[in-house]
Every structure is written in C-alpha cells, then in structure tokens.
Amino acid sequence: MSLKGKTAVVTGSTSGIGLAVARGLARDGANVVLNGFGKSQDIEAAREAIEREFGVRAIHSPADMTRPDEIDAMVALAAETFGSVDVLVNNAGVQFVSPVEEFPREKWDLIIAINLSSAFHAMKAAIPHMKKAGWGRIIQTASAHSIVASPFKSAYVAAKHGIVGLSKAAALELAKDKITVNCISPGYVWTPLVEAQIPDTMKARGLTKEQVMNDVLLAAQPTKEFVTVEQVAALAAFLCSDAASQVTGANFSMDGGWTAQ
After folding, report:
1. pTM attached to this predicted model
2. FRET pair for 97, CA 20 to 30 Å: which of 6, 28, 63, 187?
C-alpha cells in the first residue's frame, strides 16, 4: 500500500482508462477523486465499489474540463476533503476527425481545451499542494499520437504532442521538489467505447468483426492486440512508486510496437 494516506485526482475517470487508473491507485492505498460525466447511478456504483473493495475513500467531482474555475474547484475539493493532493492524473480527452481545411473551429478549441489546457490548469492548481507536502506525481494520458501522426486528427495530434512538451517543461521545473511528471502513450486500448464502434464499422465496410479489429483498429499495432486498461493502470501505479522516483520528463509508449515502425 505505497500510496496509503495519499490523495489522487484522476480526470475523465468515470469509465475506461481513467476508472482503471483510479482503481489501481486505490488498490495501492490512495483516496481518489473521480471526475467525469455519465449516468449518476453508474458513477455512484463505481465510487462505492472503490471504497468497498479497497478500503479507501472516493468522491466524485463533476468539474467540466473546459472550465478552469471548475478545475480549480475540483483540486480544492480534493485538498479540503483529504488534506492533500499528491497524485494528479490528467486523463480526460475527446476526439474529432476532419481534414484541416474543414475542421470546425469550435471542435479545435474544444479538443485543445480538454486534451491539453485542462492538464495545465489542473497542474497549476495541484503543484502548490505537492510542493507543500514535498512529494508529488503527475501523470498524463498521452497517446501514440504524441509521437506520430494520423491524417484528419490535427487537433488531437497537436494536443497530444503539446502535452508531452508541457510535461517535459514541468518536469525540469519540479526536478528538485520530489515531484515527477511523466506521460503514458497508449495505442488502441480496449474499452467499451472502442468495442461499441465495431458493429457500425462492420456494417459500413462489409467486414467481419475480426477484420475490423485487425485491419482497421489494429492496423498500426504490430502485435495485433489491444492495450488493456489494466496495463495502463499498472504503469501509472509504477510511476507513483518509490522505484520511479528518478523517472521524470519521460513518455512511455504502450502501443504494441506502433511507434517503433
């Protein structure tokens, strides 16, 4: 229980990668602040399950990641409830696909706000608490698209490249404060959201489920296997451990070999 008594704030954590990371940190003893949208009963079930299974406390903040004031309030809520903010995982993200010349300005602004600017605002709010405690871990959910690009995803690729740069700069600033800043860059991760896309893609392209998975979704991943949310969570837990105290400013690929090509 290396995180016993510590507090973790995980954005975009009501499902998928974020929820798995929150659960992984709770398993290691951290109290957690969940964040994100969804059905109230589903969020409450996830929150209650964390408390029941891991013997920690869990609360939910509905903070909108496009609103800096709400992000500040989320971090303040964590500090007021648990007395500290020790781990920050910036995981919230959205996607939109379009050619650059047709990309709606409002979609560009939304993706940059949620995928990049929200991380800055959360870090700005959380770092003073970490400095006061003399310890902290900041982890960003980046993407294979923080290293390579794909067409029609200009805003997403720009945001993910940007969050790596933000993390490197912060890592250097905080190097003597015992606060590390690192990125995890998954390829395609098996989540309910990805799974739900398969039937429509099968119908639209006239493909079997296996063809959609191997030739469409996993076309770029040499292993032809999805990353699991548990694998991402395990890496996040490692980055919070004492064993990773000298790991900072790094970007960890977890993409089945995608970016090795």
Report:
1. 0.96
2. 63
